[in-house]
């Protein structure tokens, strides 16, 4: 997304996309399975988000309520907004996405961090030669230092940007890690050793997200260099590259966001409801600092922020869905309904991406949705996020995927 006027217009519309999306190649449709941590559980196929039967069922639910008057009876073709409380917590996000289209070797972003941290990098090789992209950690402590990687995902470089975005999120959400990196005073090492062997061809994108804990301060450098170069030795001789127009890089305190439902959901009384993610209305964008020049920055889209979404249910069975409202989208989420079991959901499950069949909202439709009433169109796309049965709490983990458009909505429906 290039040009100040276009940027301002998109921000005003409440829609954000990663710039590389404009050149994304549409991947072939394919099925996807829900994955569970209890390995004995059978793999289940997820129905495609384009299945119009979902919308038909929603309309039946909203139009067939008897007994108590609900918000959905007053607005039979729509959903009511479900209010959420928000708080930010956790460690530090190191976010590197500017310059996104990298034209020369250099340091793309750099800052020092200790304790819990997350690094996100999202860059495209915009040169005519093969390159490497690497994250180098340098020990700034005057003694031994240990960095422990606790989670991470890094899809293979590709010119299919949506595929890279989805693969990275599927890997990130699929499992935890416990990888130790020992650093002596002044020592530098790669965040992942395979970064020295991964080649980024011209026009290819790389996208990675890694959580880690540093016992003491480390200097984190995201760099691009020649394919034959050594990242650990090259970093000290590379210049810091200037940011591009989007200025999507910086350091953000509080790398996690917790969204908690303001009240317990009663499907029989509350009917169909929704809440928004990464719309900068109900879910505000994060503010941070670009450590390379000290300037204030905004994380347009909250990329790299890991959401914990807490949804208590009073009674009854509930179906959950994700709906993209900004354009094409490809990512992953996971849900918890028991202490040690989670379900991984590709979003969407039956296609590589979705959102291309959902018509853009008019100004009137957007205003109504932001005011608390969302009218679903016939072509609104929904990706299933599972169900809950009876009293309890469902918890989702979500993070805006690179190469995808925002905002998105989470929909909760009584199971008919």
How would you characterize the overall build of this protein?
The protein starts with a helix and ends with a strand. Strand 2 (33-36) and strand 3 (44-45) form a beta hairpin. Strands 6, 7, 8, 9, 10, 11, 12, 13 and 14 form a nine-stranded mixed sheet that branches. Mean pLDDT is 86; it is low at 1-52 and 64-76. It has helices at 4-12, 52-63, 71-74, 161-174, 231-234, 267-270, 363-371; strands at 16-17, 33-36, 44-45, 78-81, 84-89, 92-96, 101-102, 106-125, 131-139, 145-154, 179-183, 188-190, 205-226, 249-253, 256-261, 273-277, 286-290, 295-299, 306-313, 318-324, 331-338, 341-347, 373-375, 383-388, 392-398, 405-406, 408-414. The protein is 13% helix and 42% strand. It folds into two domains: 14-89 and 255-414, no CATH class; 92-252, no CATH class. By secondary structure, the protein is mainly beta. It contains seven helices and 27 strands. Residues 64-85 are annotated as: Disordered. This is Copper amine oxidase N-terminal domain-containing protein. Keywords: Signal. Residues 1-22 form the signal peptide.
């Amino acid at each position: 997304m290039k040009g100040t006027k276009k940027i301002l217009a998109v921000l005003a519309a409440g829609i954000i996309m990663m710039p590389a999306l404009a050149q994304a190649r549409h991947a072939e449709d394919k099925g996807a399975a829900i994955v569970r941590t209890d390995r004995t559980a059978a793999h289940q196929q997820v129905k495609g988000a384009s299945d119009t039967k979902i919308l038909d069922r929603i309309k039946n639910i909203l139009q067939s309520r008897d007994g108590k008057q609900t918000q959905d009876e007053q607005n039979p073709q729509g959903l009511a907004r479900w209010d959420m409380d928000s708080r930010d917590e956790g460690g530090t996000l190191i976010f590197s996405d500017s310059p996104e289209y990298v034209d020369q070797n250099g340091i793309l972003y750099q800052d020092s961090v200790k304790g819990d941290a997350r690094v996100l990098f999202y860059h495209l090789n915009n040169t005519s030669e093969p390159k490497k992209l690497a994250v180098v950690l340098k020990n700034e402590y005057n003694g031994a230092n240990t960095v422990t990687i606790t989670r991470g995902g890094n899809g293979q470089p590709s010119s299919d940007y949506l595929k890279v975005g989805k693969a990275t999120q599927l890997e990130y959400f699929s499992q935890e890690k416990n990888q130790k990196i020992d650093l002596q005073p002044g020592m530098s090492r790669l965040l992942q050793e395979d970064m020295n062997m991964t080649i980024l061809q011209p026009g290819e994108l790389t996208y990675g997200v890694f959580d880690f804990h540093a016992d003491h301060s480390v200097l984190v450098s995201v760099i691009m260099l020649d394919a034959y170069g050594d990242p650990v030795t090259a970093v000290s001789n590379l210049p810091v590259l200037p940011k591009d127009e989007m200025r999507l890089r910086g350091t953000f305190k509080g790398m996690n966001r917790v969204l908690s439902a303001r009240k317990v959901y009663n499907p029989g009384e509350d009917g169909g409801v929704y809440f928004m993610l990464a719309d900068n209305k109900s879910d505000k964008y994060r503010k941070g600092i670009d450590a390379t020049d000290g300037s204030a920055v905004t994380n347009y889209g909250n990329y790299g922020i890991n959401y914990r979404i807490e949804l208590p249910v009073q009674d009854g069975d509930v179906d959950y869905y994700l709906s993209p409202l900004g354009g094409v989208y490809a990512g992953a989420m996971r849900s918890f309904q028991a202490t040690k079991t989670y379900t991984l959901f590709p979003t969407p499950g039956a296609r590589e991406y979705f959102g291309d069949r959902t018509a853009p909202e008019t100004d009137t439709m957007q205003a109504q949705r932001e005011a608390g009433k969302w009218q679903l169109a016939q072509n609104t796309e929904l990706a299933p996020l599972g169900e809950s049965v009876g009293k309890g709490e469902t918890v989702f983990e979500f993070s805006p995927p690179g190469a995808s458009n925002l905002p998105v909505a989470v929909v909760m429906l009584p199971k008919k």
